[in-house]
Design brief:
The complex is a heterodimer of chains A (about 210) and B (about 160). Chain A has about 210 residues and is of the alpha/beta class. In chain A, about 35% of the residues lie in helices and about 10% in strands. The longest helix of chain A is centred in the N-terminal third of the chain and has 28 residues. Chain B has about 160 residues and is an all-alpha fold. Chain B contains six helices and no strands. In chain B, helix 2 packs antiparallel against helix 4 and helix 3 packs across helix 4. The relative contact order of chain B is 0.16. Classes of the chains: A alpha/beta (about 210), B mainly alpha (about 160).
Chain lengths: ~210, ~160
């Protein structure tokens, strides 16, 4: 039956097309916490499996602008250069040895007491159930992460060398590492990952808040 | 031996069972695409750009194929897709089992936190389950194969 044989691939294509169309529609209609950016994720490149995210190297400082070489122009009478005022370059910020570092519960508590910002990398529904008091919701798998990070930056205005504490659920949760890798790409290089995460924070009896991000 | 295997009721049962499994697998993923994207990322096999399209389209493809099998239309096309999906699931699980990399299956949506040993055990079970479902797909494809002797068959209707 040639018609039947040729119909099957066409029907397979139709099923795939139907699925793609439904995905387009549903992703537009779902609440923002359930949406995905079609363009994919930017946190790490390439994607590494959990447990294999290597600590990235700190970004090397940009080289000082060199004097432009003038090789094309013919030789001209050279005017005596007038001494220009020497501009003192500001000293480079103190970069920690490793831009991403894991910290323990007591270190996280100390950071909390000194007013350092906390970013919660878990899903927004987990954030609503409970989070470190004063933490910012930055769910690394949700479509509005960009907007949430922009809000955080606009409110706290963290400098590139200011410490930022990031946490998720502890254990083998890697969301905080993904968020740290993303922030590192954006030029922040004092990122502290609270290794044991929110369960440890709750167990230690530290301040917790609930409610919408 | 194969006569009872190809009995209409056996074929119907296999088709509906396979369809129901895929509908049940699709629904939790449709409800939470970011959770499914995270599960796919956990396998460590896919580039970052592919995570969202996979997490968004795969559950709908599972649902469409599952519904087609349950309702009895485009059976061969749906069974071929499901066979391809099962093969890729088995490959993904097998590669991660071979490299002792425990992952959450993500087959039926999110799961509770587990130890590495529990995850590896679950992965073996999932692999066995997918292989069993693959047998159902083979049965469906065999029972609905085009036959020149029979001018019309309701199988791929």
């Amino acid at each position: 039956m040639p018609s039947k044989l040729s119909a099957t691939p066409a029907r397979m294509l139709a099923l795939a097309g139907l699925a793609g169309l439904a995905a387009l529609l549903s992703n537009a209609l779902l609440p923002v916490s359930r949406r995905l950016p079609w363009s994919g994720f930017r946190p790490t490149s390439p994607v590494a499996p959990p447990g294999k995210v290597a600590p990235p190297e700190p970004p090397t400082p940009a080289p000082a602008p060199a004097q432009p070489l003038n090789t094309t122009r013919p030789a001209q009478p050279v005017a005596v250069p007038t001494p220009r005022p020497r501009i003192e370059a500001p000293p480079p910020p103190a970069v920690p040895a490793s831009p991403i570092r894991e910290i323990s519960g007591p270190e996280a508590w100390k950071a909390f007491q000194s007013g350092q910002p906390f970013l919660d990398a878990r899903r927004s529904e987990d954030f609503t159930v409970g989070h470190v008091a004063g933490a910012w919701c930055a769910p690394v798998w949700e479509a509005d992460l960009e907007d949430r990070l922009l809000t955080f930056k606009a409110s706290r205005r963290p400098g590139p060398e200011d410490p930022i504490v990031i946490y998720c659920s502890g254990g083998d949760c890697r969301d905080s590492h993904l968020l740290a890798a993303r922030l590192l790409n954006e030029g922040y290089f004092h990122l502290l990952i609270y290794r044991d995460g929110f369960p440890d924070w709750v167990a230690a009896g530290h301040p917790v808040a609930k409610g919408q991000p | 031996m194969t006569r009872w295997l190809l009995h209409a009721r056996v074929t119907l049962a296999a088709r509906v069972l396979l369809g129901l499994v895929f509908v049940a697998a699709a629904l939790p993923k449709l409800a939470d695409p970011p959770g499914f994207a995270k599960a796919i990322w956990g396998y460590g096999l896919f580039p970052a750009w592919s995570l969202s399209p996979l997490a968004l389209v795969l559950p709908w493809l599972e649902l469409a194929c599952g519904m087609a099998l349950c309702l009895g239309f485009w059976i061969r096309a749906a069974a071929l897709w499901i066979g391809a999906l099962l093969l890729s699931f088995c490959l993904a699980l097998g590669i991660n089992l071979a490299r002792h990399h425990p992952v959450d299956c993500g087959c039926f949506g999110g799961s509770i936190p587990k130890t590495d040993a529990e995850r590896l055990a679950d992965m073996r079970w999932s692999l066995a389950r997918d292989a069993a479902l693959g047998l159902l797909v083979t049965h469906l494809l065999w029972s609905t194969r085009p036959r020149a002797a029979e001018p019309s068959s309701p199988a791929d209707g």
